[in-house]
Specification:
Blueprint lengths: L1 E4 L15 E4 L10 H11 L2 E4 L4 H4 L8 E6 L5 H4 L3 H10 L5 E5 L1
Parallel strand pairs: 1-2, 1-3, 3-4, 4-5
Length: about 110
């Protein structure tokens, strides 16, 4: 699975997702891009987008996307608060379908 981590997520999250080709928004040179452009770029190259932005589905037109979106909701975006969601995230990345949005709450 080719996964893109939103730039507001800690880079340390990459190490928790072995078995996937995980890149961050800064890794691919897309830092500062607005969500609509970011999703368009990711849709052309990746399988899943992981973000903490709970409002993304309401703010963006996700219909027609060829990637899945996983939304992580924790107390904060600190790695310590996100770690409890890692087991669920691994499962979600294995199951997310094209155009699907999965919300994980910790």
């Amino acid at each position: 699975m080719r996964v893109l981590l939103d730039e507001s997520l800690p880079r340390q999250l990459k190490a928790q997702l072995s078995g996937h080709d995980v890149r961050t928004v800064p890794d691919v040179g897309w830092a500062g891009k607005k969500n609509d452009e970011l999703l368009r770029l990711a849709d052309e190259r990746l399988d899943a987008f992981v973000t903490p932005d709970a409002h993304l589905p309401e703010q963006q037109n996700l219909s027609g996307l060829r990637l899945g979106v996983v939304i992580l909701r924790a107390r904060s975006n600190n790695i310590a608060d996100l770690l409890p969601l890692i087991p669920q995230l691994r499962i979600a990345l294995g199951n997310v379908a094209v155009g699907q949005v999965i919300r994980l709450v910790g």
